[in-house]
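Please, why this fold?
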Amino acid sequence: MITHHYGTDNIPRKDVKPGAFVKYKDRTYLASANVSKGLYINNVYEKTLIRSDEIEVYLNQYGKPLMRNGDI
C-alpha cells in the first residue's frame, strides 16, 4: 500500500511508463513493461498482464502518475 498519494486516475495503457504505481483489483502494483499485447505489472507476490485499454494509476502532488523513483 502507498501511504502518500493524491488520488487515482484512469489513463490510456499506452501512456503508462515503467515504474508507475498501478491500482488493479484493489491492490497496488508496479508497472514493469508496456508492450503491444498489454501492460506487465508486478508486486512482491505476483506478476500479471493487463490487457485493458484504461489503467488506474496513483497520482503524485502534481497530478501525474506516481513513479517509484520519484520522477515527475
Summary: The chain is about 0% helix and 45% strand. The two ends are 20 Å apart (CA to CA). The chain has one domain: 8-58.
